[in-house]
């Protein structure tokens, strides 16, 4: 997610990275606590995250299973 944020920030010289925020995601292995990188303009959202206001979905579970 951090590398994805860096690629997005390269295109916008006025925007910078702004630490991380904690997020709990539900997956088939239980809750997964992650630190999600953010930007100052609050425009960046990592592609791996499920839609806003959801803790998980099938595509996230599929991604986790591919990485295991």
Fold and architecture overview:
With 68 residues, this protein is α+β, with helices and mostly antiparallel strands. The chain has one domain (2-67). 28% of the residues lie in helices and 31% in strands. It has two helices and two strands; from the N terminus they run αββα. It has helices at 2-10, 58-67, and strands at 17-27, 30-39. A two-stranded antiparallel ribbon has the order 1-2. The protein is elongated. It starts with a helix and ends with a helix. The mean pLDDT is 85.
Q: The biggest beta sheet, please?
A: 2 strands, antiparallel
The share of residues in extended strands comes to 25-35%
- The N- to C-terminal Cα distance equals 18 Å
Uncertain ranges? none
Which structural class matches the secondary elements?
A: alpha+beta
Helix content: 25-40%
Please state the oligomeric state of the protein chains shown. single chain
Count the domains: 1
For the largest sheet, list the strands in their spatial order.
1-2
Mean residue pLDDT: 85
Please report the number of helical segments.
2
Tell how many strands the DSSP assignment holds.
2
Order of helices and strands: HEEH
Output the radius of gyration.
13 Å
What best-fitting shape do the alpha-carbon axes yield?
elongated
